[in-house]
Automatic annotation (TrEMBL), chain B:
It comes from the Bacteria. It comes from Ferroacidibacillus organovorans. Pfam families: Gin. This is Inhibitor of sigma-G Gin. InterPro entries: Sigma-G_inhibitor_Gin.
Length: 242, 67
């Protein structure tokens, strides 16, 4: 008996949501080809159904579309194995491309998701390779030299004598506080919160990256990287404002 | 939406919402962060490092047959 595709997919999504609601990540069992266990590709009908649900913003739909196209990532990543980048990194980069593809895919356009995703995955890897060939001979000031028992990274800039609040002092020297607060408005809520806590922008005492990380339940190394990125963004905003 | 908290693969925060890939949750904040991060951003290298887990998940999965 043939079960209609709509019912089949609705059942799968339902099971997925139930597993998530009881705090269990779905343990999928996939057909194994070679040494890798890749999720099987979606059938044409399955994909059509999921794409019709994509604009609703349903995370389960998005996750299924990404997961079932991972073999595309592995296939394309393998083509770049002779570039000197490890396959696991190529797959990571390709996965970012795939996530971008599913998030930006326009179902109205008459193009297949696999075609669009392949282009996004390949572009992502090519952009990385281009950037990598440029900076291979450079050493970043933010290069981690070591990590202590608490997970705090010792950066090259630390050894070179850069004080921890230099970045903030530099910002203060360049723009006045009003500009800073205007720029902060452009950040997301989480980004703004991190900056306020790190640099005591709301009148409270400034906090260490570890304190902020513990408070937000985020890893310290992630805070460290987010912070640098936010400061970069703030600088851009200042330039726009001045 | 997840009722129970899961640990985000990227930021390691306990979250109730997110996409689940090969059993690993990526929270909505990190998903958006990934989409809008340029390859030359230091944060990008962090995402690449964290997503390596997916590759290990793919290669370490035991051969268990068809779905």
């Amino acid at each position: 008996m043939n079960i209609p595709i709509r019912v089949r997919m609705q059942t799968r999504l339902f099971v997925l949501r139930i597993l998530l609601s009881i705090g269990r990540a779905p343990e999928s069992i996939w057909y194994v080809g070679g040494s890798e266990a890749l999720p099987p590709p979606l059938s044409r009908d399955e994909e059509e159904y999921l794409l019709s649900r994509l604009p609703s913003g349903d995370e389960a739909v998005r996750a299924m579309l990404i997961e079932r196209n991972l073999r595309l990532v592995v296939y394309i990543a393998r083509k770049f194995e002779n570039t000197g980048i490890h396959i696991e990194d190529l797959v990571s980069i390709g996965t970012i491309g795939l996530i971008k593809a599913v998030n930006t895919f326009d179902v109205e356009k008459k193009i297949k998701l696999a075609t669009y995703a392949s282009r996004c995955i390949e572009n992502e890897i090519l952009m990385f390779l281009r950037r990598n060939s440029k900076i291979r001979i450079e050493v970043s000031f933010d290069e981690p030299l070591n990590v202590d028992w608490d997970g705090n990274e010792l950066l090259l800039s630390d050894v070179l004598g850069t004080e921890s609040d230099t970045i903030y002092r530099d910002i203060e020297d360049q723009v006045d506080r009003n500009l800073l607060y205007s720029a902060l408005e452009k950040l997301t809520e989480r980004e703004r919160k991190i900056m306020e806590m790190r640099f005591g922008l709301t009148g409270e005492k400034d906090m260490t990256q570890k304190d902020v990380a513990d408070l937000l339940g985020i890893s310290q190394s992630y805070i460290s990287r987010l912070e640098k990125r936010i400061i970069k963004r703030l600088r851009k905003e200042f330039h726009k404002l001045t | 939406m997840m009722e129970e908290e899961q640990c985000c693969l990227i930021c390691e925060a306990r979250v109730r919402e997110g996409i689940v890939l090969l059993g690993h949750t990526i929270c909505a904040d990190c998903e958006q962060e990934m989409i809008h991060t340029e390859v030359d951003d230091e944060l990008y290298a962090y995402f690449v490092e964290k997503l390596r887990t997916l590759w290990f998940e793919l290669t370490m999965r035991p051969e268990t047959g068809t779905p």
